[in-house]
Amino acid sequence: MSAVGTRTLRIGTRGSELATTQAGTVRDALISAGHDAELVIIKTKGDQSMESVEKIGVGVFTAELREALADGRVDVAVHSYKDLPTAPDERFTIAAIPPREDPRDALVARDGLVLGELPAGSKVGTSAPRRTSQLRALGLGLDIRPLRGNLQRRLGKVESGELDAVVLARAGLARIGRLDLITESIEPVQMLPAPAQGALAVECLSANTALVAILSELDDPNSRAAVTAERALLAELEAGCTAPIGAIAEVVESLDDDGRIFDELSVRGCAAAIDGSDVIRTGAVGSPENAEELGRSVARELLELGARELMNVTEAGDADV
After folding, report:
1. Per the database record, which ranges form the Porphobilinogen deaminase N-terminal domain (predicted)?
2. Whether the predicted pLDDT of 47 surpasses 70
């Protein structure tokens, strides 16, 4: 029985294998805590269109889930956090950010190749401007090809030989149990991930305080601090999920002058020209309690270094998956 009544908690999710697997972890955690829960599939515009996200709009994977929350069809929505618009919606609360998966990008390439082994001219699939710009900036002479569709469809492009490689979020492959396909986990020094990549947002109505309290038990403080900083960076840059912006924040242990261990939040961010001609990077370290301001300060430094001009160098792209 649910602690918010006798009704089973209805968890809204997209219908893809990855989305239902992600939402299933939340369902299972709630059941383990003594709350009946089930998944409810909600179709979204992003699932029904093969157009790029830049053409059909930010929030295409989340808007319908939020409307299902608002009209009472579901009690909880589980999102890939990076898909949510940065503008706040007071109707809803992100009640929990569960422990985050590894946020790095991953290469899945033919013949077990890593990035540095791909011959010049190799066809690499990813339409995300963030990935496209940083791949081009590596100067490897890769032929970046548009890529759209669910995870299995993207992976199939390599299996069929249509592409030599694809770049995907490592977290997605981890969640569907296919880490064995990865030929290289791409370190942030080469490619910074999307803000909030690998993190889930567990959302409910702000007014439902009893449910907020239940869901908050699933929250991981370090994941929340990191994601808060990364999303604040994105918001300060007034950029959406399709912008050529990368960010990663991590809670790390440091030593004070007396040898005592304390936690710090390291934040790194980048802005890139889509043609790969330039990438601006900067970072900062501060208290996890000041995560939002720390992220915004990194964004302001990026702007001072010319990020706005770089972001205006654009071409058609797609959301990070």
Report:
1. 9-210
2. no
Q: Write down the pTM of the prediction.
A: 0.90
Contact 70, 3 (CB under 8 A): no
2, 68 contact by CB (below 8 A): no
For 103-132, what is each residue's pLDDT tens digit? 999 999 999 999 999 999 999 999 799 999
* Residue 149 phi, psi dihedral angles, 5° rounding: 115, 175
DSSP string over 173-225: HHHTT-GGG-SEEEPTTT-PPPTTTT-EEEEEETT-HHHHHHHGGG--HHHHH
pLDDT-based confidence at residue 44 (cuts at 50, 70, 90): confident
Q: In this structure, is the dihedral angle defined by the CA atoms of residues 184, 188, 192 and 195, taken in order, positive or negative?
A: positive
Q: Which residues contact 205 (CB under 8 A, 6 or more apart)?
A: 69, 70, 91, 92, 93, 211
Give the Cα-Cα-Cα angle 252, 129, 59 (nearest 5 degrees). Answer: 85
Residues involved in catalysis: 83
Residue 259: the pLDDT is 84
| Residue 17, both tokens | 């294998």
Helix (H, G, I), strand (E, B) or coil at 217: helix
Domains belonging to the chain, first-starting first, are 7-97+198-218 (3.40.190.10), 103-183 (3.40.190.10), 224-310 (3.30.160.40)
Q: Are the C-beta atoms of residues 125 and 163 closer than 8 Å to each other?
A: yes
Torsion angle (degrees, nearest 10) of CA 109, 137, 269, 57:
-70
HSE at residue 107, side-chain half, CA atoms within 13 A, is: 24
The two tokens of residue 60 are: 């295409």
Predicted confidence at residue 150, as pLDDT, reads 87
Nearest partner of 107 among 197, 190, 7, 45, judged by Cα: 190
Tell me how crowded residue 146 is: count the other CB atoms within 10 A of its CB: 12
- Three-state SS at 113: coil
Q: At which residue do the structure tokens 């032929």 appear?
A: 143
Return the closest-CA partner of residue 173 out of 107, 236, 222. Answer: 107
